[in-house]
Each structure stands twice: as C-alpha cells, then as structure tokens.
Fold this sequence. Notes:
Layout: H1 2-26, E1 34-38, E2 44-48, E3 51-55, E4 73-78, E5 92-96, E6 100-104, E7 107-115, E8 126-134, E9 137-142, H2 151-157, E10 162-166, H3 176-186, E11 190-194, H4 211-216, E12 221-225, E13 228-231, E14 240-244
Parallel strand pairs: 3-4, 4-5, 9-10, 10-11, 11-14, 12-14
Antiparallel strand pairs: 1-2, 1-13, 2-3, 6-7, 7-8, 8-9
Amino acid sequence: MPNHFHFFKIVFERTLLTIGLVLFSSLPAIAGGVRIINHGHSSILIKGGGQSVLLNPFKAVGCAAGLKEPRLRVNVILASSTLADEGARIAQGNYLVNPGSYRIDGMNFEGFASPHDRVGGRRYGLATIWQWTQGGLRFAHLGGSAAPLTGVDRVLIGRPDVLFIAVGGGSKVYNGIEAARVVKELNPKRVIPVQYLRDKSVSNCDLTGVQPFLDAMKGAEIRQVGKTVYLSDTLSDETVITVMR
C-alpha cells in the first residue's frame, strides 16, 4: 500500500505541474507601452517597463501657480533645469538635471545641454535635453529648450517615438512656430506639447496657450485626451499630436 500511495502521489504532483505549465504558457506576454499622466505645466509621469519617470517637478509659482505640486515617489526624475517651475526638488527619486550618461535600475538616460533662451544661454543658462527608452518606446524630453536644434542635436536625438516639447513661448521655451519647426525636423510618432498657458487668470506668466502650436502644425492629426493616456509600443508611423488636459 505505501508503494501504491507513493506512486499515485508522484503522478498527482506531475499532473498538477503539467497543468500549471500549460496554463502559464497560455497567458499573454507582458505588453510593452506606457501610461502617461499629466501633472500640469511641463510635469509628466511616465509609467511602464516596470519603472516610473517624472519630468520637471515644479513648485506652484509663476506660470505653475494654482497647480498641485507633483510630490511623488518615482524611480527617476528628469529635470530640464533647477528653476522652480521645471526642476524643483519636491519629488522622491533619482534626480537628474546635469547633462551626461546615466544608468539607473537597468535604464539608460542621455542628457545634453541646450540654450534655455534665444541668446545662447546668456540669460537663463543651459537646459538639459533628455532621451531614454521605456516600455519599448524611445522618448525625447525638450521641456526647457528655446534654441533651434543643431545638426549634432538632431543626430543625438534621432527620431523619437514620443516627444515632449514646450510650446508656450515667452523668454525660456519655444513658441508655437519654433516648436512646430523642431517637430518637423525630428518627425516623431507622437508629440505631447507642454509648458503653455492653460488658465488665463494666472498672472506674471509670459506664456501663450497651445493653439499657436496647433495652428503651426496644420495638417497633423490632433487628439484631445484627458489627464492620462496609454501608448502602446507599436505606434503608427505618422505624427500625431496628443493634447493632454
């Protein structure tokens, strides 16, 4: 009897193991893509590939007045500069603001300098352009740029799947026409405009709204979405502008 019991026990255990392997193999693979959450101004949270990346956390001052500050805990924080409205140290995570090559939690981040104004950085210094891959998508973050891209810039950035670009104008970032020129040079698959005036009641802000940029991108598909949008890792090839609420 003990031998029979041992035999049936082995058969039972192997049967359970086989069923488990079949069920596991029939499960869909973990999909790529990312979830993008807008926190206002030029602050965006990207979640995907097992990581969370926060762009440009801000203090609620200047053009960001009245917004809820993104006091989040994330893996990586990518700031355009140390200015209070685009690089405030209010979130928790690995804070990157200086140009360079970084590897954090298995992800590579490349940052390089670009003038933060239209006079070669003599007024506001240099901002940092960021690029990285997350959830199977190539990202470029030009949140704090105001100068035209150089040939070297275009080579370093390549063709992003997703481009974050400031469009509100003023003294520190691209205006609508300048941003549209950059978009046409880089030809990204998705464009998410940031850092533009959303609330006309905000005082002491030299930004304009998003409409001049959309006008300059005449002919491109424009999608109005909410505060959150999901992007798969198999984007269509044409340029689509995603305007987040």
